[in-house]
User: Fold this.
Amino acid sequence: MKLDARCPTGPIETRWDRARFDMKLVNPANKRKYTVIMVGSGLAGGSGAASLGELGYNVKCFCFQDSPRRAHSIAAQGGINAAKNYQNDGDSIYRLFYDTVKGGDFRARESNVYRLAQNSVNIIDQCVAQGVPFAREYGGLLSNRSFGGAQVSRTFYARGQTGQQLLLGCYQQMEAQVAAGTVTMFPRHEMLDLVVIDGKARGIIARNLVTGELERHLADAVVLGTGGYGNVFYLSTNAKGSNATAIWRAYKRGAAFANPCFTQIHPTCIPVSGDYQSKLTLMSESLRNDGRIWVPKQAGDKRPANQIPEDERDYYLERKYPSFGNLVPRDVASRNAKYVCDEGRGVGESGLGVYLDFSDAIHRLGADVVKDRYGNLFDMYQHLTAENPYEVPMRIFPAIHYTMGGLWVDYYLMSTIPGLFVIGEANFSDHGANRLGASALMQGLSDGYFVLPYTVGDYLATAKPEKTTTDHAAFAEAEQQTVAMVQKLMNARGKRSVDSFHKQLGKILWDKCGMARNAKGLSEAIGEIRALREEYWSDVKVLGSADELNQGLEKAGRVADFFELAELLCRDALERNESCGGHFRDEYQTAEGEAQRNDEAYSYAAAWEYQGPNAPAALHKEPLTFEYVHPSQRSYK
Amino acid sequence: MKLTLHIWRQKSSKDKGHMQRYDLDGLNPAMSALEMLDVLNEQLTEKGEAPVEFESDCREGICGTCGFMVSGVAHGPMKGTTVCQLMLRNFKDGDELWLEPWRAKAFPVIKDLVVDRSAFDRIIAAGGYITAPTGSPQDANSLPIPKEDADRSMDAAACIGCGACVAACPNASAMLFTSAKITHLGLLPQGQPERDRRAIGMVAQHNIEGFGGCTNIGECEAVCPKEIKLESIGRLNHDYIVASVRNRTNVKPVSHTSKYKRDPLHVES
Assistant:
């Protein structure tokens, strides 16, 4: 496998313009002759499907949920970054680019990040035109707030429901294309395999989740916008259905998987309350604008928060990072929460929690202003914990939230399989080793609205896919493989439920490949995962049949893929002998406990190539060069 | 804590369905109603009985996937809450609960507590959008919008499309859902050019799908997890009448695309 990122050269400001000019175009009358499959209907998939439909392509869009509007982008709370500089506080495209490369701990591709920063400006225009009700000032202009890792106010938001509003915007745009006949929607369908013909992605095998039927779908290009793989940890802020099956099965068909160990742990989630817990709930990073994070100075101090006097509190982020304070990037905030809890200063029953305190903000701004900014988040917190955050500080703890790793793509968002594009969180490209807050929505929409529509056209005009049908042997082979896997799961007839295995897998990963990792733990984890996987295939219990709605079977297939992905995740973490961003290796830290990169040896994207069921994946390296933002020790002090 | 559940079990759209009793013990008051069903399903799986199919995804009250009747009330007794955030501490030890799917002709049951809500997507496709093709817009701040308008628009835009309004309405009307979108877009300057078409198209599709009419009962507002206001139906009526007077009736309804629609008889296409 040869990795060619196809990045344009020359001045970074004009790279995307020149790349766009050099792309081949598809004549307007010819676009309707091409079919593009879009898997996933979140911000990336929805905006991509809508935009391709508007251009005139035939789009078939698939999602496993009952409606495209359910995609998990909907749960994003805090906001979306854009270099508009509406606040006149010194923001610019270059600064957003700089912050993102630095925030990603110098493990992202400069050309991609610059393009992302350029597109950010158009995204806000696009969303406002669709009727996204962003927060506004009394003068009628758009309001901004700050997010972690930035010293400017560039985050646009719609209360604590920014993801919902952006998703509904592109969902509505896509439904307009459904009405226009360019987009056909296949809800309650799950992609179970990729079909590759003559080396090109030409279709998918999808299971109709209501009838259980396997369907063959042919296309000239396939796009995956299926989100991240955070649910490999079982407990995460992802939706219950979020899964890695589409990208994993594409990986097994030849698409390289890059940087699986770059996983993001979000510092502000509601702590775990018991074994039955099915997911973790995020409290938006925007809360760190006005909330102050602290723990007692004294280990083992079990007094209620309001009985701990001011001078016995440790506002540890403000103390250690005076210039960024509570707004340090997520990896730094999470790691520090872990440190104070390891020291025995954690709060709450389990000791796994820190306070996020709004009493100063309420005192300074008044409860009304705080309510206007964060009301729905406070309500949610109160629903879940039965504590009133207007009166007692919230308790928060880090949780798996986002995965920077994903399928490897070139500058054109095409994977190592020609004709297979990967967008949004499902790809690996723009966030390096750590994503800054309010940048995921930006990337999803940038890919879907402003990159994919051009690059898919360029591919179709250049590759000119040959005529073929779903009777091709490759479709039959993929369908047979899928049938065999479904039958194997149904026929295991073991003793344990899918969830019980998934929880156990998640615990191994969280303990040994979570907030901090080391070589010993990772090697152990790999052994444990393999053993558990074997047990899974012989002892899993799936009830019902394969020809009906069967959520147990759906989960069983996804967890089978998580097992394989978990092993690769640990291997990648073991291979990367440095700490960077969300990947923190105990062995590699500075005297102050910050991540210590090794740029000489590890300034690359690790792209793993599948070698068959019993062979270890092969590692390929895409070297990363930094012409504009020179790697330095990240400092937020 | 202990709870007795009576759950609607229906194998498929063709099955008649029945209520089944389950006694659960050892529940934690900090669990959500859905985590309670997870516990039940683990137990059923252990015994080799088919687990209860129910839908959920984000489990933080925003995706709109979950929802069922809890003792006759959509999403249960707590105001402004979806079942995924309905914590057991709101019930008493020993309580008896009846869990049933949304009941409406336009929401056919697929299995157990799972219903088909694809009609909502078709109502949106019939006009619930602002046409703004990618690449065409002007600078975002060139169109100032009074904060009050933006805020009220956002109140309506908060709808999660869960279907509770339909399930609560004695007429099985989807007017609250439909009007939330009409209000969200109609309050914004960007939404004005298509305002007439939107009202006519969405209401026509609403009726084709087999939802009932609104008779101002207000059950929908009472159960809405996002507390969408009944007054938005007033805005819908206003927009619909104005559009009708202007004679904009040339909007084509969207066709049925749902392959697994159980009962297509009510479609007047």
Remarks:
- Chain B touches chain A through 83 residues (CB under 8 Å).
- Chain B has a mean pLDDT of 92.
- Helices of chain B lie at 33-47, 118-125, 147-157, 164-168, 175-186, 195-208, 219-223, 231-245.
- Residues 79 and 261 of chain B are 32 Å apart (CA to CA).
